[in-house]
Write a structure and sequence with these properties.
With 277 residues, this protein is of the alpha/beta class. It has a single domain, classed as Aldolase class I (TIM Barrel). Helices cover 41% and strands 12% of the residues. It is built from twelve helices and eight strands. A five-stranded parallel β-sheet has the order 4-5-6-7-8. Strand 7, helix 9 and strand 8 form a beta-alpha-beta unit.
Length: 277
Amino acid sequence: MPALAPSRSFNPMSMRMIRSASKDDIVRITEAHGTAAQLAIDSGFDAVEIHFGHNYFASSFLSPKLNHRKDSYGGSLANRARVVLETARTVRAAVGDRVAILAKLNMDDGVPGGFWVDEAIQVAQWLEADGSVDALELTMGSSLLNPMYLFKGDAPVREFAAAMPQPVRLGVQLIGKQMFHAYPYRDLFMLEQARQIRAAVKLPLVLLGGVTDKAGMDTAMAEGFEFVAMARALLREPDLVNRIAEDARAKSLCIHCNKCMPTIFSGARCVLVERAG
């Protein structure tokens, strides 16, 4: 099945064109989210999360850089947010109040002309008013246009190239440094943008990005966030939370080399754990 986006464009990651989604495609994908949520409940999960970030399907509709449509799904923010709102409503209709529904929402895409925090605030307010989600997990960046913006730290260009099939591998080897920009890492690196969402909505919020120790968790709680999320830190140490519970001074061993990123094509893992083993 071809990749779909709001408008036809070139995907530098796959070296292929992305097809513009038809209205039938939008309906099919929206309904598939509801089906997937129902399957998750039937399988025993206690919550589901809808992905409205990183310029994946729904997020790409939010982006004025990627969405050039002239119909009711393009143009104004209200139109660009329709896929997000319709998807959230479809999932809520499918699961009712049986489980919590979270949505991961981009605060900014990290690319000129993309989706930025001022529009993210409005979308968050619409989701809150709609009552279709129980919490928002805040994120940022574009897997398509600026992958490292959502990670911070080293840019593992060589490892990404090795994980790709040809001719994409050659392309990454030649222009990978232009595709994968390195950003300095700091703890709680999404906090500044997330504060703006926190000030605008009462909906429970999940702070993501550089949560590595109890001090960071305490800061998040003091700033008014109800939850924190961890990713790379838990790839490095799946038992990190237990270690923090035993010792409040404990800190993640993750060094933010981001060499875990290319492993998503073969099973996400920390390569440092492999070497230590």
